């Protein structure tokens, strides 16, 4: 995988990882209730679900990408459009909405299961792996290896996001709950996603 692809992928991917979705809000809530360690290890349930999705995506789409360049371009353009749509949703989201996630007292295994099922049932996560990852794959190289590299990078960045949101839950929840700071955060993520989408549309394969 070339350096330019990685420079496009990493910031866009991290913006997706850091966007305040249900799993990240759950990690923040768990950290406030049970502490950083419990929230972080509960996030392993989320990573397990995402790993399974990445494997299924890689095995299914690798064959298609090898046989049809037209399908690849459709996925590429659709994925860039998805980035723009996410950027728009984040930019225009209402910062005054409070999306607190509640959870009762549970064991670490129960918290991990909750993260797993929340991630597995999230349609946005499915779209990320079917529309986002494939557009960074170079058909001239080994597609399976590239999917592995992209998937590993995504999982590592997702682990960082879990840790960051757990820290938010411990120390910065009050700051993050303020509408103007939430808006700044959302728009920063939106700018990264839109920039990556534009870069992908302009870049040559």
Please give a quick description of this structure.
The protein has 205 residues and is mostly helical. Helices cover 81% and strands 0% of the residues. It is globular.
The span between the termini is: 12 Å
Largest sheet: number of strands, sense, barrel closure:
none
Order of helices and strands: HHHHHHHH
Give the number of DSSP strands. Answer: 0
Shape: globular
Helical amount among residues, as a percent range?
over 70%
Rg over CA atoms, rounded to whole Å, is: 17 Å
Unreliable sequence segments: 99-104
* Average of the residue pLDDT scores: 78
What do these coordinates show?
With about 200 residues, the protein is mainly α. About 80% of the residues lie in helices and about 0% in strands. The protein has helices at about 5-20, 20-35, 35-65, 70-90, 110-120, 125-130, 145-175, 180-200.
